[in-house]
Structure formats: structure tokens, C-alpha cells
Amino acid sequence: MNKSLSFWCPYVGDVGTIKAVLEGAKSLSQTNNFNCKIINVFGEFDKFRPFLNKYNIKEVRLLNNTIINIIPSKGFFWSRIKYTLIFIFSFFPLLQYLKKNSNDYLFIYLITSLPLIIVKIFNLQNKVILRVSGKIKFTIFRKFILRFCKSKILRVLVQTTYSKKIIQKQNIFKPRSISLIYDPIIDLKKINKLKNVKIDKEYLKKKYFISIGRLSYQKNFIFLINCIKKILEFEKNFIFLILGDGEEKKIILNLIKKKKLIGFIKVLGFKKNVYKYIKNSSGLICTSLWEEPGFVIQEAAACKKIILTSNCHSGPEEFLDYGKNGYIFKNNDEKNFIKKFNQMLTEKKTHKLKIKNNFKKVYLYSHERFSSDITKTLN
After folding, report:
1. Residue 296: which domain range?
2. Does this model's pTM top 0.85?
3. pLDDT of 296-345, one tens digit each?
4. What is the CATH number of the domain that holds 70?
């Protein structure tokens, strides 16, 4: 009998976790052992319906036409309101769904406390797989929920050894129940096809470095812009492209204008195919305050590009072997950023080996590896 997996990941903004869920479900649905279902709480996964149909992933709609749909997603205040309403309105529909599908493995990604509480309080038989990533905060409430529900959690999945150590220190779960299993976000066949798509000639006139991510506080683009201003005092052979959209877009555009950097920094917005821009770049720059694992780092490695990143916890630093295979600057330290940027420019002879070593690691994020690791875990 095939195992049935339900994925719980209600989201209100474009975050990397969405890709982790979709690619994870895709990976497992392509094996003979798993029937995958995405719990589409209020329509957040509607736009991915063609993807779900293509890979035979079932969509389960939980709520219809609720107030959740009319509340804006941008901004901290409104996102918190939306998450609270998801919790309230989803409680009983999710309870009924889990009762009806009691044999399902339940993969939990976001708004983790709701399904955990339901499974525990009503003593449901669903086997819970809890994926933990990002900036992990063990608040009093979170510790209480995890301790209260730990008997129902079959496995905790983490993305880095750093996170694994942090969770182990809490002494909530047995060490053997915490598994390092990377999200399957790298499909080399797909990447190799997309990266060879031609880009506008405008971006080939001058060498450029690229930064990719949501225009938000986490990605720290304001810091990047301030650093670029100082770099241009002595190095004007490059321009800088920023790919992404988000709540800080106006602030970023105004800062670029204020700093008189319009010709040197170009904000291109969200791009479905980032690989063609990565391929033609001189390298990737990541200034994030935190990442785990930081999917764009693995995508740049798959495109065989050199990487400059902050020493944010915890993914990029770990992936680059703590500076052995890339360049790492101290978070929010402009002087150190400029020093490492210059080092990257002057050490081009060492890039080939660094890029080669990073490319070897890309397999860890493949669909084959993920499917194999999850199969072993569930068995």
C-alpha cells in the first residue's frame, strides 16, 4: 500500500519555504511509494495548480471565501493578523481533515503550532514530520508546544548542522529523531536548460554582480546599497543587479536615487527564471541577516558562480565550508564587506577550485537524494 503524505504550509508572503514544499512534494510524488497532498488552506496555492496537476499532487482546499482572502499580506502587522485568522478559521476544518486521513504522514512547514496542538489534544494517529528552518527562536511558548506535542512528532527535519545542534541543546527531542535532510531545490537538468535562455543585451554591455531575494528587512539590501556606494569610489567596472520584489521596494528605490546610483544598481523585480541572470553574472552577493539554507546560494553553485555572503546563521556559511569555498564577510560590517569584495576580485585564480567544490555539494539538494532520505526515514 502506498504511503499518503499531507503537506501543511499556509503562507501569506513569498518565502523560500514555498519552493521547499512544492519541490518536496514533487520529489516524493514521482516515486511509487507516496501519494502527496498539499493542504491549500485559503487559496494560497491556487497559482501553483498547473504545477500540482503536472506532478500528480492532490490539492485539498480547506477554507472557502473567508475574510483571510481580503486582508493584505504585506507588512508585519497585517501578516500577523492573517496568520492569527488562519489559526482560528482552520482549526476545525483541519481537525476534520486529519481525522478523515488518519493514516497520513503530516509534513509541517509553517504555522506549526496549530496542527501539532490538534494532533496532540485529540490524540490523532497522524505521523508528524516537523521541518524546522530559518531564524530559530525557542520562545517560552514554542518550547511549551514542542514539549507538549513531542510524543506525536516522528521526526524533526533540519537544513543545517548548526540548526541540528541548536535543537539538540534544548533537550526536547532524542538526538536520533532529528535528521539533517536537505530540501530538493536543485534540478540540474532544469537549471541547465533555463540558464541558457538569452537575456536582454542591455545586461551584457557591462559586467555585473547579482543579488536575489525578497526586498525585505531579512535580505538587508539597504546595507548592500550603502556598500556599493563606497565600492564605486574606487571600482566602476561593474554594475549590480537586484532581482526580487517585496515590502521594502519603495525604500530601496528611493535610497538608490538618493545615493545617485541609478546607473549602477538596477532593481529588476521578480524574475521567474533567475538562472539566466546568474549564469551571465560575475558572481552572487548575499547580504542576508539570516538564511537557512539560503536557496539562492545553492542555485548560484549549480550555475558554477563564485559567491560572497554574510556570515549569517546558518546556511550560507556552512555551505561554503566557512570561507574555504567562497568569501564570507561579517554581518552588517561595511569595511569587512569591501575587504572581502576586493579579495574576491583579486583572487580570480582560486575561483575555479572554490566553484568546483561547491558544485559537488549541489547533489545534496537533489530530488533523488531527498526522496531516498525521506524513504529511509519513514521506513
Report:
1. 188-363
2. yes
3. 999 999 999 999 999 987 789 999 999 999 999 999 999 999 999 999 99
4. 3.40.50.2000
Residues present in the chain in total: 379
Here the cell at position 10 is 499556509
Burial of 287 (0-12, 13-18, 19+ CB in 10 A): buried
Residue 133 CA to residue 295 CA, distance in Å, equals 12
Q: Which residues contact 93 (CB under 8 A, 6 or more apart)?
A: 62, 63
User: For residue 140, is it within any domain?
Assistant: yes
Q: Using DSSP bridges, classify how beta strands 34-40 and 58-61 pair: parallel, antiparallel or unpaired.
A: parallel
Distances in Å between the Cα of 79 and the Cα atoms of 10, 242, 257 are: 12, 24, 29
Residue 173 and residue 30 share a domain: yes
Q: Backbone phi, then psi, for 339, in 5-degree steps?
A: -60, -45
Identify any residues that bridge with 178 across adjacent strands, giving them in sequence order.
Answer: 156
- Reported as type and span, the H/E element at residue 209 is strand 208-212
Among residues 243, 158, 187, the alpha carbon closest in space to that of 51 is found at 187
Separation CA 29–CA 24 (nearest Å): 9
For residue 376, tell me if it sits in a domain.
Answer: no
**Crossing angle of the two packed helices 188-195 and 295-302, in degrees rounded to 10:** 70
Task: Kindly state whether residues 170 and 243 are assigned to the same domain.
Answer: no
